[in-house]
């Protein structure tokens, strides 16, 4: 995981069953919830064959882990989840790398299940079925029958996802018994952290996603090329969370690469310099850091313990017109200008419905729009408006033209005082449990007997 070569202040997240909720991105994270990918501790021979068989009834061994078989069908069914999450837009070269990563994930999952069993920890089928039903209801708004049908349709299976859930529950129970009782965070440590947080009030905080790939000096160029290909896939619409879970060798892989809210001082200098110039939604990489390469994605930005204007609740009216088929760009431009002038003449939100009716425009009202949920350019512009003012028109010949009018704004209350003592203590405990869990899994990998077909 190269944790020794990187900032120890990176946020680490304990793997919990809550991570199953992240399956909402079309089940984008096969295998990742029950493990953390680690740097090269599992050696896969150059001549290993990943058997992908279209017939689910034909099962051939890809790897045997301490006597338990991982088949080509197992790999295919997990891989199908990633393919579905990326809408099938995965190159042949990318597919080969994904197969190897999925196999590594399944090996870790197998080791975790075996260790739980050896420790006489039993996860009942009823617990697994309950978690499976929760995923179906919370993330897909459907029952388990519909979930079963969806998984089969994309080439996966309910059994594959349920095995993943078994690994997650088994590992969590194992950590709760063998590690959690021996973790202690003192009151002084928590109070010191709270003091540092208050001292940082008003400074910038960044919520970053990362994909970290370790690289030895002789493999540097190859890893750089792999990282560049991942960046290309992401820019073409690939899921950052899915790629982080499958490729990242940082402990944050289990939570889709999410580093949480951090300050630039917590980052290695190479990353801090880049992050300072990033805007929310921007992707940058590969960036060379000690021990490998990083890909950064800026999820959001805020100021510590300070009310964020983007949390304001807006009351908006959207006025829109459409263009008849065959309208040219020039004609659309003229109509959009006339439309904007007409709406500009309206005397605030109380008058705009009447004006819109006179020109054949449609009006939609929404009193509960959070500013931060709007697209970046619109978000910034609308926060500068006073009630009754409008944004410039936007749209296209195909989709028509829209104008947003601000009717009211409820600014966020003064930011709270940050996490409570109990919340911060729990976070520090979780971080320490996760670090111990990483060491535990490394030991299991090191002692495992793995045969490849």
TrEMBL record:
KW Amino-acid biosynthesis (keyword) present: no
InterPro entries: OMP_Chaperone_SurA, PPIase_dom_sf, PPIase_PpiC, SurA_N, Trigger_fact/SurA_dom_sf
Keywords, comma-separated and alphabetical: Chaperone, Isomerase, Periplasm, Rotamase, Signal
Domain PpiC: 203-300
GO molecular function: peptidyl-prolyl cis-trans isomerase activity
Highest taxon above the source species: Bacteria
Extent of the signal sequence: 1-34
Alphabetical list of PANTHER family matching this protein: CHAPERONE SURA (PTHR47637)
Protein name per the record: Parvulin-like PPIase
Natural source organism: Novosphingobium beihaiensis
